Amino acid sequence: MKIKQVAISGFGRWSKQTFDLTTQMQVIQGQNESGKSTLRAFIVGVLFGFPNKKGRTNVYDPRDGSRYGGSLTVVFGDQTVKITRLGRTQSHLTITDLADQSVILHPEAWLAEQLAPLNQDSFDAIFNFSQQDLAAITQIKGADLQKLLLNIGAVGSAGWLNVASGLDKQADKQFAQRPTGKRPLNLATKHYAETAALVHEKALTLPDFVRGEKALMADKAEVAAAQKTVVTLAAQVKNHEQLLQQYDLYVKAAALKAELSNTPQSVSDDDWLAVQSQAATMTMHETALQTLNQAQTPQVGHVSSDTFEFETAIAQAQLEVQSLQKQFAQRDDWLKTQQQLGAQFEQGTIPPPLSAQEKQQLTRRGPAMLWLMASLVVGVLGFLVAKPAVLLAGIPAGIAYWQYQQHQRHVEQILAAYNGLTINEVLNLQNALKQQPLRKQKLAELNVTISDQQSALLRRLKPIASHFDVPLQLSDLPKLVVELQHRYEQQKLTAQHDILKLTQQQQQRVEEIAYHQQQLDQLRQAQRQIFARYQVNEMAELTARRQNELTTQRQQARYQDLMRQLDPKTLAQFQQDTDRQTLQQALAQLQAQLSVAQQRVFDHQATLSNHQAQQAQLTSNDQFLALQQDMADEQAALLDQFGDYLADKLTVNWINQALQFASQNRFPKMQQLATKYFDHLTQGRYQRITFSETELLVTRQDQQTFQVFELSTGTQEQLYIALRLALSQVIADIVAVPLLIDDGFVNFDPQRKETMVTMLQALAHTQQIIYFTTQWPHATSNNVIKL
User: Fold this and answer.
1) Residue 546 belongs to what H/E stretch?
2) Measured between alpha carbons, how far is 15 from 60 in angstroms, rounded to an integer?
3) How many Å apart are CA 258 and CA 589, to the nearest integer?
4) What SS3 class is residue 75?
5) CA–CA separation, 595 vs 588, rounded Å?
6) By C-alpha distance, which of 450, 460, 472 is closest to 314?
7) Mean pLDDT of the 606-628 span
8) Does 749 score more than 60 pLDDT?
9) Starting at the edge strand that comes first in sequence, how are the strands of the sheet with 69-76 ordered?
10) Are 32 and 774 contacting, i.e. CB atoms less than 8 angstroms apart?
């Protein structure tokens, strides 16, 4: 198998990235955090499946949100395929044969078959390792390496190894070689020895057992006689205790009978119910009267006073609103005139009136005309007198032109403030401009007057608006006044309605008071008649008599209950001269006799228990026969269990020997090849590698043996790499996949690192090697991809 291209859609820091692996010894160089380990994890993920989030495993989610996954272009023999695996949680695998672009059915099964017998665990154990993995050398055992070789080198060995492991564990759970073992066969063997010793011991005690049985029979007879006496005395004590209890009941019944002989006249149920009903009804009428008498009559006059004040204030506010509306109209006229005047100028800015000098500049022609006329005169005279003198006319003409230009500049400056109006239009606006300051002053005074009137009006309307819960709105005072007028009219109507309603309610209250008072008087008269019948003055006395009657009824019921608990014979005995002291004396005598009899039973039972304990230590014929049978059963069971144990152990040995033969005895080959690589890497310093069940040993050239943890870090890593390379070479006839090495030589010295590079380049002739590193000694090599 050879990987030709790696194309990543999204995996960790890589996104939409392609790497072409053109050589057998492919070096991928980059600094820390450049993505080397991420690229190695991507290759393994495409081949065996991407990692999940169980534990703290890095799942390499794309950082830029790209689609998770990518593809590998791989050569299997003479077939080139593209393996595409997309998605992490629901990964989708597609394999395309690049020869004809056909898609392979059942891609997972096809890929597993191409990689068989490798899975991800065995791939990581042999072909994929990093600097961090090298520390695992201290945990390697020969048995683990041998099992790994059997899994890969023998077809179906994984199942047979599981069977052998299960049988071995099953056998070890049954029996341990150490004598203190607590496993079933150890315990059964120990118990069998104890049973055999017990059978021998019990055979000597049979005669004593027969004599003890006769003594036990006599003891049991004495215990039975003593127990019979105790039962008889206990029954007599119980009868006297019950008789004493019934005597107490008899005394209570006699006392109740004496109390019941003096009972007052009872209140009949009808009279009692009638009085209770009358009391409840009287309470209802008294409560109603109290409520009606405490009710307050509303003050109607206060409402009318407020209504009158609001009416006057609203009328005054209407007049003030009319005055404000007139002032608003006048202000609008002035503002409109001012806006019309400002509209004639740029940005609405009204200029000040012209000064006298500015007005003169606009109206006079200026001295330029005089100089122009002088120029004409001089020119005419010069033409008539002497023609060269005509040139003198240019002087006043020039002066005239200069003064004309000066005059024009002054006019333009004045007109610039008037937004391009003509001189006549400017002169016509002067009267309006002179009135502008006075108009502004009057407008300001009018605004102050309007503001004062609005404030006064709001102060006048504020209590009214608060009363009617109407918000004050300065923007629309007429509407506010109309709303308050409307609310006032509504309140006025409501007040009139309330006055009428209150009058009706007052009349109804007077009628209800009269009704309740009349009913209350009638009920009191009926109640006094019942009180007179039982010679009481108030309800409390009648209630007390009724309570006494209920107490008497309960006492009568209690008396009847006590009498039912006394049988006639016992009652007749109590009615004679029997007293409590005589009964207590008789009970004390019986209790003393019972105590003596119980002590006698305890003594006999103690003697019996001692004899039974002695007898229990002896063995009967039946027990002896049962012990012999138990020993025979245990012996047969031990033979069966030891047979199963030996069968399991022999089966394990047979499976291991068969698998060693099936794997072509690869373990010794691996050990020999690893020794060769290790010897080469250490420049002949270490010459042998030895495995045992629990540890791995190396022998130096001076024949001194070391455990792995005794070696330096660099030497440990060289031993680990030698084992990895040996494993990959020994199983090359079964499966050949690329070696993925991530910075595996950090602790090597320069000489050993160069030796390692030379060894890898030699191995690369038959096996693709992808080496990830931060630094490669051959900087000019064409097999280096720099990240």
Assistant:
1) helix 539-564
2) 11
3) 34
4) strand
5) 11
6) 460
7) 69
8) yes
9) 14-20, 2-11, 69-76, 79-86, 92-97, 102-103
10) yes
Q: SS3 of 29, please?
A: strand
Q: What are the distances in angstroms from CA 286 to CA 209, 271, 517, 554, 577?
A: 101, 22, 8, 36, 63
Is-above-0.90 flag for pTM? no
Angstrom distance (rounded) from CA 231 to CA 591:
12
Burial group, residue 128, by CB count within 10 angstroms (0-12, 13-18, 19+): buried
The Cα–Cα gap between 347 and 563 comes to 124
Q: Residue 516 corresponds to which amino acid? A: H
Cα separation, 84 vs 42, whole angstroms = 11
pLDDT for 4-50, tens place per residue? Answer: 999 999 999 999 999 999 889 999 988 888 899 999 999 999 999 99
The whole-angstrom separation of Cα 388 and Cα 369 is: 24
* Average of per-residue pLDDT across 454-476: 76
pLDDT in tens, 753-785: 888 888 888 889 888 999 998 887 765 577 888
DSSP 144-211: HHHHHHHHHHSTTHHHHHHHHHHHHHHHHHH--SSTT--SHHHHHHHHHHHHHHHHHHHTTSHHHHHH
State how far the Cα of 311 lies from the Cα of 647, in Å rounded to an integer: 123
Under DSSP, is residue 280 helix (H, G, I), strand (E, B) or coil?
helix
Q: Which residues pair with 7 in a beta bridge?
A: 18, 71
**Distance (Å, rounded) from C-alpha 785 to C-alpha 27?**
6
Report the amino acid identity of residue 585.
Q
Residue linked to tokens 């097999």: 783
Angstrom distance (rounded) from CA 240 to CA 230: 15
